[in-house]
Amino acid sequence: MTDIEMARIAGGTVGLHDARRKVRWSVELEPFEIGVFPVTQEQLAELLGETATHPRRPATDVSWLRAIRFCNAASEWEGLEPAYTYDGEDVTWHVDSDGFRLPTEAEWEFACRAGSTRPHYGPLEEIAWTSADGVAHPQNVGGKHPNLNGLFDTLGNVWEWCWDLLDPARYDEYRVFRGGGFADDAWSVRASVRRGGAPRMHHDDVGFRVARGGFETTDAAQGWSAAADLERAEIDGPLPSGWTPRG
Fold first, then answer.
1. What pLDDT, on the 0 to 100 scale, is given for residue 247?
2. Distant-in-sequence, close-in-space partners of 136: CB < 8 Å, separation ≥ 6
3. Are the CB atoms for 235 and 169 separated by under 8 Å?
4. Terminus-to-terminus CA distance in the chain, angstroms?
5. What's the pLDDT score for residue 245?
6. DSSP of 124-155
7. Are 194 and 21 contacting, i.e. CB atoms less than 8 angstroms apart?
8. For range 169-192, the mean pLDDT
9. HSE, side-chain direction, 13 A CA sphere, residue 78
10. Among 11-15, 21-25, 84-88, which stretch is predicted with the lowest mean pLDDT?
């Protein structure tokens, strides 16, 4: 298989923001690894038995569930313990596993910022494919400048799935994607922007990059916890205007 190039990210602190709930919080991260590039069509094709029309473009039209499947396949190929198990579409992350996985959104934002506190880690035209470039599809990975962690395309080109739920009270099972895409304007291509979609959803501007790192915890790691997901899913009082009851 074409190697998945990884970068080692030292531990540190990252601040996150949920605009809907109007809350900000900080996350202390342990060291982890993350892909230097988004997963490419070539890599997806090699592991999942598909055809790569444009081998060096980011893999897109990939659902969150398919990205999870790719992570486990990559782990098995490398002789690592898979990070995920399934019960239907109910996915469990075994946080002590050192296999390939999706980054938590805290990991993703920390790795993307690379020490910057600004919306972009450099001039957007130099680091990201956006609507300003006038392109009609994702571009080959690595075509713009990397950040100080040596990561390419964290902003622009394609959005990237993360492990976390977006907002379980409002959107149920929707998972986060980050980073902005080739058709987005500058306002959406920022390190802090959170969007998401259903686990089976796939679009031509949503891909993913992998992470690695196991932790001596249970159902919680790197800014995510199962208990917090349950707490965020609860709604006190009547539903806000415009909401519909979940499921």
1. 53
2. none
3. yes
4. 41
5. 59
6. HHHH---GGGT-SSPPPTT-S---TTS--SSS
7. no
8. 96
9. 18
10. 21-25
Q: Which residues pair with 16 in a beta bridge?
A: 25
138 vs 135: CA distance, rounded Å = 8
**Strand pairing class (159-165; 206-207):** parallel
Number of CB atoms found within 10 A of residue 86's CB: 12
Write down the pLDDT at residue 140.
98
CA-to-CA distance for 144 and 122, rounded, in angstroms?
Answer: 11
Predicted confidence (pLDDT) per residue in 55-110, tens digit: 999 999 999 999 999 999 999 999 999 999 999 889 999 999 999 999 999 999 99
Query: Whole-angstrom Cα distance, residue 247 to residue 201?
Result: 17
Single-letter residue type at 92? T
In single-letter form, the type of residue at position 105 comes to E
Is 31:127 a contact under the CB 8 Å cutoff?
no
What's the confidence (pLDDT) of residue 10?
97
34-63 mean pLDDT: 95
Which of 224-230's residues contact partners 24+ apart within 8 Å by CB, and which partners? 224/104, 224/105, 224/106, 224/163, 224/164, 229/165, 229/168
Q: What is the distance, to the nearest Å, from the Cα of residue 77 to the centroid of all Cα atoms in its chain? A: 22
Tokens found for residue 20:
């809907």
Model confidence pLDDT, tens digit, residues 87-98:
988 999 999 999
Report the pLDDT value the prediction gives residue 205, as an integer from 0 to 100. Answer: 98
Alpha carbons 207 and 158: distance in angstroms, whole number: 6
The Cα–Cα gap between 21 and 153 comes to 28
Residue 234: both structure tokens together: 């609860």
Residue type, 187: W
C-alpha span between 247 and 240 (Å, rounded):
16
